[in-house]
Amino acid sequence: MKVGTGSVLQDWVMELPLRFQGTLLTAVRGCDNEPKQWTKTGVAFSQGRRLTAFIRFCFLNPADAREIDVEEGAFFMSTPPIPLKASEFGHLPQHWYSHVMHALEIIAYYHPENMTKLLALQCYHSMVHNLHLEPETKETQWERLTEDRIKKGTLIELLMMRLFSFFELMTPPLLMLFDSGLQLESR
């Protein structure tokens, strides 16, 4: 067996801006909260796990390509769950759902292989429509992920600083209320 020594990221990913790469990496981990079924060999599998394995296949290089599709529940799967029923993920955290949905969007718009793009696009559309949203265009996605957040003043750190400044201003008056023995009545 030949052991891979290059990057874990496929070449096409390395050509993307860093925010795109980061978005893909947020979808590598499966959802911890998803109930799993077990194969005869003791491997866990589920629809969410299958989708995550497909996403990994789309942008990561496996250490051993023989492990791709080796069995249901494998770490790398060359196809998503078909058909993908995004409504089956309703009990899972929206945070995980959005990471997966946005990773599929990047794969759909930038993957070099047309069949992979098509499969990812179908999954992305299914997840978007399940949330009663409209799919983001490739151009809009590019603008969102390449915007100059410093120039726009939309960095989360700036927002957090403003929030902490607000709490610093509000803390002394609130402490005075409690120190004076004033109690707020619950209604």
Description:
The protein is an all-alpha fold and 187 residues long. It folds into two domains: 11-146, no CATH class; 149-187, no CATH class. 51% of the residues lie in helices and 2% in strands. It is built from eight helices and two strands. The chain has helices at residues 11-14, 18-25, 47-59, 94-110, 114-130, 138-146, 149-152, 156-179; strands spanning 37-38, 44-45. Strands 1-2 form a two-stranded antiparallel ribbon. Helix 2 packs across helix 4 (94-110) and helix 3 (47-59) packs parallel to helix 4 (94-110). The longest helix has 24 residues, at 156-179. It is globular. The N and C termini lie far apart (70 Å). The relative contact order is 0.11.
Secondary structure: elements and pairs:
Layout: H1 11-14, H2 18-25, E1 37-38, E2 44-45, H3 47-59, H4 94-110, H5 114-130, H6 138-146, H7 149-152, H8 156-179
Structure keywords:
two-stranded antiparallel ribbon, 2 strands, 8 helices
Tell me briefly what this model is.
The protein has about 190 residues and is an all-alpha fold.
